[in-house]
Amino acid sequence: MTVDELQKETPQPAKLGLVGWLRWFWRTLTSMKTALVLLFLFALASIPGSLVPQRSVEPDKVALIYQNDPALAEWYDRFYLFDVFTAPWFAAIYLLLFVSLIGCVLPRTSTYLKELRRKPPTAPKNLSRLPYHARAEGELDVEEAARRLRRLRFRVATGPGWVSAEKGYLRETGNLLFHVALLGLLVAVGMGSLFGYRGNVLVVEGDGFANTVAAYDRYMPGSRVSAESLEPFSFTLKDFQASYQLGGDKRGQELDYTAKLSVNDSPESPARDYDLKVNEPLEIDGTQTYLIGHGYAPVFRVTDGKGQIAFDGPVPCLIESKPTLTSGCVVKVPDAQPEQLGFLLQFLPTSVRLTDGSHVSAFPGQLNPQAKIVGAFSGDLGVRSGKPQSVYQLAPDDVMKKLKPLAMGSKAPPPLAVGQSFDLPDKLGKIEFTGVKEWMTLQIAHDPGRMPALLASALATVALVMSLMIRRRRVFVRIKDGAVDVGGLTRTEGSGTGFGEEFADIVKALSAGEKDVR
Amino acid sequence: MSAEQLAGLSDDLVLGAVLLYLAAMIGFALELAFGRARTNTGATALTVTEPGVKESVAAGSSMAAGSSVAARSSGESGEGAEAGATVAVSPPEPPSWAPKAGTVGLVFGWVGLAANLGSVVTRGLAVGRWPWGNMYEFVVAICLAAVAAFLITQLRSNVRFLGAFVMVTAALGLGFAVIWLHVQAGPVVPALNSYWIAIHVSAAVIASGLFTVGGVSGILYLVRGEGFSRLPTRTDLERVAHRAIVLAFPVWTFAVIAGALWADKAWGRYWGWDPKEIWAFITWIVYAGYLHARATAGWKGRAATIVQLVAFACLLFNLVGVNIFLGGLHSYADVGG
Ligand code: HEM
Questions:
Q1: In this complex, which of A49, A131, A494 lies closest to B278 when CB atoms are compared?
Q2: Cβ(B191) to ligand 1 under 6 A?
Q3: How many CB atoms lie within 10 A of CB B236?
Q4: Which residues form a coiled coil (chain B) (predicted)?
């Protein structure tokens, strides 16, 4: 990784055997130029990851592309553009880079170790040729000069009439450690993706969660995680509290939110209370639970045409507008008799009536919660068809077409306040809006690589500072006929800055009488 | 003072800082324009092997105050190792007021810095939190950091030749923030209510400020040809850029790691290839490439400068482009309108 090495261009492999080719390949791979090219490729390769939505980050946007432009999505997928950071071509780049890094670091370490044992070289004959040169005043012999330089923490060698001193070996230590730390970081990240898992779940007030694979809405295990290895904790969401800015420019902005949990660290341990907030995850035995979102789950009771309660419970709604938390909800009642019922609703946390008679939400907090019936339907919802269905969609388009609309558009009733109900036409039943609960979304993650990654990156930073800020420098002294010549040079490019001052100090230390020296 | 008054004062101070930076720029520009022209050290003029260093040893400090501009290009701050000095055919004597204009620029610069600092502090007091929770506040803080980096460096070694360019950059940055990004003082979303904002964003601000100084020098480097020019010498420019980047790079590394630590608390993973993370990573890689290119591959001058400017462009894209076009988890950066 030195200039020499770079110029020692790898020869063209003319008629080389397999071993020759391999050697050529290895030397090319570990040359500084290749490392630089790979480094830039690494950066370049991650750009598409920021332009194309990534499956692991925004799965819904990926789905949207599939919906709007399937052909394009196919092509993207062919080149792993939805999964850039787990793509084989991306892995190829960083693996080559890291191999190249190892190829650089190993020989360099052995050179360094040898150099550590070597003494500084003989002082050059003519010190005035060096970039830094001065004449110290006063009497000085070789022994004394060496002693003073040692006291300045130089490594010193002496000869007849000369002293040679060197300092700043930690620069190379820092450099090597930095590169090793980067390798460590790669290993830590790899550990996380093999042995860690991540999942998302939505929990409504009053409900609980137990950490098992089945309880997740979305579960993403590393390739070496078994279902048994999940920490057996559980908790209940007792209460969810959110506060919003009341006035001014930022009216409606979230200020704070808290999930009041009752937690059981394991099935045997007693329940304890925990306030889960953003930036303050709940940690249980290395598994972190994060609060990442929240919304409303209005509670509905549906009575069917036969007078039986066919549905009663909270319905988590999808947020349609973040600033006002206007939310869209779906109620499916497959148990209703004589016909199945389905409702599309809109939940307005703070409902206000506009002059044209329509209702909108004006504020995200629940100051005047109302539920607007957007559509009520009867007919077979297709729930029992065996095909998986989204809880946020009443029915797939083809099924929707076959449903019978009961109340839509102008026939829809005004929004219901809590406690109000709406009677369906044709004596098919009624829907009652009985209360409001809130839901929270959580991310639960276990990543055994977290701490190693932190250590590796801390080491990398410290080592980086060492390798950038420490300079390797040499000072020579020649004593002849009572005249003390001092010369100095820095051995690292661009680091001369400031050495002038240090050099002046060294000259002063060499000039000073015995007692002035530190 | 009420929060509204403080917020209003903050807005006024930003405008004041813009004007003061412009005044400073004019001072520095006059000095550049009427001061002595410089020869680039790389050019083949009469090269004297006298290492400029002796001078600095004798003078005790790296900045021999009286040394003329021509002497400066001999690497007065101890960089004598880098290149032999050049004494060019002496150009006509500059008018004596020219250096004074530079000093006046310096004074305006410091007062502008005070106004800029005042605007950040009053904004912080008005909102009762760290004053870099959105893009407007962030850009104002970066301009503060860039000017501070320049003025503080100027205390130790003479980098006045950069003054006009740093000042115009800061004034443009603040102007951009006021016109395009301004948002009323107010609270931030819960995720930003954390002491990590002090650590992560401050580091990002400081690093960005220093990188800006490096970027300005890099652009000048490319604009300036070889030979005589009113502009600072290429050697000086490259040296300043390199030093700024060497300082900024560890700080940037720290900012990214602190971001990862925060993300580990706020988002449930320490690294998730969010657009801002991707571009922070790209910026880091390209600056690392610059340092490697200079240190080990021996690229100097143009090639290294271009790498550096690519990295700077990535930095700017991360700041502006990612917030505006790409979104992601960082998008509560709250771009004003
Ligand atoms: C791995 C994680 C992270 C990385 C790599 C990262 C990177 C960065 C970078 C490079 C900047 C510099 C500004 C720019 O160029 O736009 C920045 C600014 C900022 N970051 Fe982060 N960050 C991370 C996590 C976080 C987290 C978790 C939060 C808050 C919850 C956060 C909040 C901010 C804020 C408020 C700014 C100020 C700038 C703005 O408003 O655009 N960052 N981050």
A1: A49
A2: yes
A3: 26
A4: none
